[in-house]
What we know:
The mean pLDDT is 90. The longest helix is centred in the middle third of the chain and has 16 residues, at 89-104. By secondary structure, the protein is of the alpha+beta class. It is globular and about 50 Å long. It has five helices and eight strands. The protein has one domain (2-172). A six-stranded antiparallel beta sheet has the order 5-4-3-1-6-7.
Amino acid sequence: MIHVRIFHGSVTKPFSGDTHRELGGFFGGHVAVQVFDRVYGFYYADRNNIHIFPNNQAKSAIFQNQSLPEWEEIVRDKKETIVSIPASEEEQLWLKDYYKRNVADPECDYSFWGERCASNCHRLLSQLGKVKPGSRLLTAFYPGQLLITLKREAKQRGYMVRTKPGDPRRIWA
Length: 173
């Protein structure tokens, strides 16, 4: 089983006392993929140096590699949706190998008009035949858009979808 783990974008409720700021607001959030007992995600290396267009000569990208308890701590107060997708052991090993290679040396740059967490996940799932391929601008430009795409695929293909609520002091996308 492959688990696509998406924490939703959010903004602070007025007068809630929550001062935490998330990059992107409602269009923020993050996408990661759980393979076996590890959670992998494509992320920017420097929040202040996100490229507009891909720059493979000066990449500002990292691939996260976290244990399940580490991930659970990250999303403890966040609204999270998990889409569970059946996968063969061969498919899971292919995905794990991809992430292990890219944790060591990212193959692409994190950029606004290039690849980001949602589009990276969509590209990999479409290569495995788990979702229909398509333009990242229309299917996976930001985490919420990928979530809509995955929920549609889940309905058609029978994938399991479950959501846990986030901190009530925030308005969640």
